[in-house]
Design brief:
The complex is a heterodimer of chains A (290) and B (378). Chain A is of the alpha/beta class and 290 residues long. Chain A has seven helices and seven strands. Chain B is built from eight helices and 19 strands. Chain B starts with a helix and ends in a 14-residue tail after the last helix. Classes of the chains: A alpha/beta (290), B alpha/beta (378). Chains A and B meet through helix 1, helix 4 and strand 2 of A and helix 1, helix 3 and helix 8 of B.
Chain lengths: 290, 378
């Protein structure tokens, strides 16, 4: 009897302390961002750390570092987000017909990936080495049964084609970004630049947004190419932008409407006046004696 | 040494048990999984309850309404009485009950049910959540589409391990004990939402003149004499008629608490505005109810926001005058139905709700559910 009592008591305590321990472990703070950047940064010249600094010496967030440097694989931060309006009939297969009205929303959601099929080839034909559909969904409540259309959001992860030139020494460069607005009025672009979202890089690291006129494209794939071309042109416009890369973009497209979107580019440039690379922490070479 | 260990173990056990009794299982809500908490809550709600509890102690005046937490029924004036004081043989185990005969009825056209005859008693019961799901369900394309979306969302994250789809919206039973035997009773049974099956239990000598079913998505009545007429106005019918059932709130309700500045999430002004709108709706509903049935809705209603039984009539003094529980199993029911109607276990293979959901999802996915999976393996 005593053994049963002791056993049940120990079991109770084990369950209690086990649950408390599990809660403690699950509540431990996540690994600090950027701790293993050097290991994850991808193709870097030997001896480079994978850290990037802003023109004022601030540390660039890990997501941006990955989005810029890790071009050997797809990363979560490097995504093209396309929101497009499309006729529901575009989702039909051969001999298919649209379902009854109550099912249109879920039908569009399930078949949204079909729209994404045309977008990756557009990227691969221009700037991307690799492209994959991260998510393709219908925008909730966007199905218009009268017009037979819906809005879709498609997220594509991509990586850029390899560059001929090797990366310069990151320790002697600063990293900057710019958000290029396409088809957005200058006033709204300025308003966005003055009030950036909290999660974005500090203003000191971001150049002033620039605005390009709104083009009109026949397909979402063509509109996507337009945005990428505009981003590439922005990269090429300034010779001081070293190893300029497209980091992410968003596109809003509807048939017959002007293409609107944003592209975020990042590049390296020389250290500003008064900033010097930190000396190496390696022990100094012994001076010759005698 | 052994004595010390034993003392420690016994002490820890007593402390934990004491904490459970005093602080309720919710004290361990951050430690124990929900299933264990639920089991403990059920235990504390039944076995650990005080033996000398009064019906009033089992009725909680909460921010969500009046909640029956034990075997109590709503009685005249919405006062609680013990169920065994009015019904014999009562049970809440109804989930496997299969009726013997099902007759489909349709809602009435128009906004005025047939009024009660002079000299009859109007019994007005309202049902909130009873958690007495039956083996009967009824649904339409909208329910199926919503379930397909839920299934697709699960499949996208879990793949073939996605849980099996539950059945369609079931009828939820709610019991009515009619103990009024002096005059015939004109029953007005009012539901808020979902599919409702009103199960009637009559005391010896009780007579029913007519049954009016108000509200809900679909509604039916069980154990009613086939000669008694039933009239139905469902939620969409009430809305089309501009009728919005509304009542004054219980003292502990969230809105009243907020109006007194006791709730941080809701401002006093917002709460007062909502209360004013509710009072206007309640007054309008009272007028329609009085014009239709001759009594005020707020004064005549019998029913908690959570509970399983309402009593129409006095609490019987003699045991023989109590209502005898009439099971849904083997009963005659009359009910409105949606596009599809199912009795669990009696549906042809591949034609039940879950099978329909899977079939639609598969068809939309070009015959291959694996295409639903999305995402990049970063």
């Amino acid at each position: 009897m005593l053994r049963v009592l002791i056993g049940s008591g120990l079991l109770l305590m084990a369950v209690g302390f086990g649950a408390a321990g599990w809660q403690y472990l699950s509540n431990l703070p996540a690994q600090p961002a950027g701790q293993d950047l050097a290991a994850q940064a991808g193709v870097l010249p030997s001896g480079q750390t994978g850290w990037l600094v802003s023109p004022t010496g601030g540390l660039i967030p890990a997501e941006d570092v990955h989005g810029y440097l890790a071009q050997d694989r797809l990363v979560p931060g490097r995504v093209a987000t396309i929101v497009q309006t499309a006729p529901l009939t575009d989702l039909l297969g051969e001999g298919d017909s649209l379902p009854a009205e109550p099912y249109l929303q879920v039908f569009a959601d399930i078949r949204a990936a079909r729209l994404a099929d045309a977008l990756c080839p557009a990227l691969l034909a221009s700037v991307a080495q690799d492209c994959a559909v991260q998510s393709a969904r219908v925008v909730p409540g966007s199905v218009d049964p009268v017009r037979g259309t819906a809005r879709f959001q498609i997220d594509l992860a991509f990586r850029l084609k390899p560059e001929a030139a090797a990366l310069p020494d990151l320790g002697e460069r600063v990293f900057q970004t710019e958000t290029l607005a396409i088809g957005v009025t200058a006033a709204s672009a300025e308003a966005e630049a003055e009030d950036p979202p909290l999660e974005e890089a500090p203003a000191e690291q971001t150049a002033a947004d620039s605005v390009a006129p709104a083009p009109q494209d026949a397909t979402a794939a063509a509109a996507l190419t337009t945005i990428f071309s505009a981003a590439q042109a922005a990269c090429a416009a300034d010779d001081n932008r070293e190893t300029c890369r497209i980091m992410s973009l968003s596109l809003d497209w509807a048939p017959g409407s002007p293409t609107t979107g944003q592209a975020r580019i990042g590049w390296l440039s020389g250290l500003p006046e008064g900033m010097y690379p930190a000396p190496s922490l390696d022990p100094a070479a012994a001076e010759p004696q005698g | 040494m052994r004595g010390l260990i034993s003392l420690g173990v016994v002490g820890a056990t007593v402390l934990v048990a004491g904490a459970l009794v005093v602080m309720r299982p919710q004290a361990l809500s951050g430690v124990l999984p929900p299933a264990a908490l639920s089991a403990l809550s059920e235990l504390s709600g039944s076995d650990l309850r005080k033996a000398d509890a009064t019906p009033a102690e089992l009725l909680i005046d909460s921010v969500n309404g009046l909640l029956a937490t034990g075997p109590i029924a709503a009685h005249a004036g919405n006062r609680p009485v013990f169920i065994d004081a009015v019904v014999t043989g009562y049970t809440s185990r109804v989930n496997a009950d299969i009726p013997a005969e099902i007759t489909t009825i349709r809602p009435i056209l128009g906004c005025r049910p047939t009024p009660p005859q002079p000299g009859t008693v109007v019994g007005h019961a309202t049902a909130g959540a009873s958690d007495l799901a039956l083996a009967l369900s009824t649904y339409n394309d909208g329910h199926l589409a919503a379930a397909v979306q839920g299934f697709v969302d699960q499949y996208r994250s879990l793949g073939p391990d996605a849980p099996v789809v539950d059945g369609g919206p079931a009828y939820e039973a709610y019991d009515i004990a009619i103990t009024e035997t002096r005059t015939p009773v004109y029953l007005v049974l009012e539901n808020r939402s979902g599919n409702r099956m009103w199960n009637l239990h009559l005391s010896p000598g009780a007579r029913i003149e007519r049954v009016i079913l108000l509200g809900g998505d679909q509604a039916g009545v069980a154990n009613l004499d086939p000669v008694v007429p039933v009239e139905v106005i469902l939620n969409d019918g009430l809305t089309a008629c501009g009728i919005q059932p509304a009542y004054s709130l219980n003292a502990g309700h969230l809105l009243l608490q907020a109006a007194h500045g006791k709730v941080a999430d809701l401002s006093q002004q917002e709460a007062e505005a909502q209360l004013a709108a509710l009072r206007t709706s309640a007054d309008a509903y009272d007028v329609w109810f009085r014009d239709s049935f001759g009594v005020m809705a707020g004064e005549s209603r019998v029913g908690f926001d959570e509970g399983t039984l309402s009593v129409i009539g006095p609490v019987p003094e003699a045991a023989a005058a109590k209502a005898a529980y009439a099971p849904i199993s083997g009963a005659r029911i009359r009910t409105t139905q949606d596009q599809f109607f199912e009795i669990k276990g009696q549906v042809a293979e591949g034609e039940d709700f879950a099978a329909r959901v899977r079939r639609i999802a598969t068809q939309f996915a070009f015959g291959n559910l694996a295409t639903l999976r999305q995402g990049v393996d970063f």
